[in-house]
């Protein structure tokens, strides 16, 4: 069963704008990860944030985690057409190492 | 850069036929995962291996699906007989193992169409 839920399901923006995607989950977690998937391809790991961290940066990516609200957000700044993809959050529950993925946010960046 | 290999990339089969997918993880990765991804949804874990042992197959439909990783390296996922509802992308991923980074490396997937 899927653990996380992304919001919105789809997002369309212009190149140069920022894109924000949210993820909510249900159980206590060890860590939360964000992955990107280009159409018809496998997933690529973007960033991992641990349960004791509140914010993390990687290039144009910024991830926040609020464990009290069981939610995370992924911000992509200065978006590019190449950022067009589906973005998934994945959570690793405390009791095991298995990851559970949400349904994803489909991001379209228009040139 | 090391990658997870999967074959075939695409497979079309008729219902009630048998189908098999192959995955070769990154060298040295002890943990291997098979996921199923239905169009428009996120990946769902089917089975997890630690070396040659199954760690979690609770979501694997065992009446028709089987998976093996005999030597703890490459793995095969089989469906017999295939049903229309099995049409999906089948993704393989690998990870170094317990105590290492949680990051999983995914292969390009096998797109299965059952007619």
The CATH fourth-level homologous superfamily of chain B? Immunoglobulins
Examine the coordinates and then state which fold CATH places here, giving the name of the CATH topology of chain A: Immunoglobulin-like
How many distinct helices of chain B?
A: 0
Number of domains of chain B: 1
Give the largest interface pair and sizes.
Answer: A-B, 26 and 24 residues
Quaternary state of this entry equals: heterodimer
Tally the helices of chain A: what do you get? 0
Q: Quick one: biggest sheet of chain B?
A: 7 strands, mixed
Indicate the low-confidence ranges of chain B by residue numbers.
Answer: none
Order of helices and strands of chain B: EEEEEEEEEEE
**CATH architecture label of chain A:** Sandwich
- Radius of gyration of chain B (CA) equals 13 Å
Q: Determine the fraction of residues in helical runs of chain B and give it as a percent range.
A: under 10%
- Taking pLDDT < 50 over at least 5 consecutive residues as the criterion, the unreliable ranges of chain A are none
Domain count of chain A, please report it.
1
Euclidean distance between termini CA atoms of chain A: 36 Å
Summed over residues and divided by their number, the pLDDT of chain A gives a mean of 91
Q: In CATH terms, what is the architecture of chain B?
A: Sandwich
